[in-house]
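Team,

Forwarding the record for the chain on the shared tracking sheet. I've put the sequence and predicted structure together so nobody has to dig through attachments.
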Amino acid sequence: MDAGQALAELTEISSQIDFALIFDARGELVEATLADRERAESVAFGAAALLACTTRAGGSERGEPIQVELTYPEGSLLFVLQDGLRIVALTSPDPIAGLAFFELRACLRKLTDAKPRLHRLAALKERLGAKTSGSGPSSPATQEGSNDQA
């Protein structure tokens, strides 16, 4: 699933999210629900800087935060970090933060879970290709070793 699809599903299932965007640790925008690309890039850069500040404030021994919430009278900004990606969302006032954080993590998981599946599929194809291109049948020991990798 690509980032655009993941964000579209997120905003479709969550009525409390006004906008959301996905970015990397450097603040480079991956995808956003905002139509204004320049604004989305600015928000992504600012969000990355804010998260870097929270990491410094918490101390290097604690590492990066998993999630951050900034609450305003008009709504909240929610940040989630997972597997090298970050997502920030603006919510309506008084969001159910636990649910919103769950939905944001699920959105990122859709992107990061696709990578291991592709790697496993490529490894399986490679193993099958190696077995069919070999000069003879595989020994039981080779077959058993290949099952351990799956």
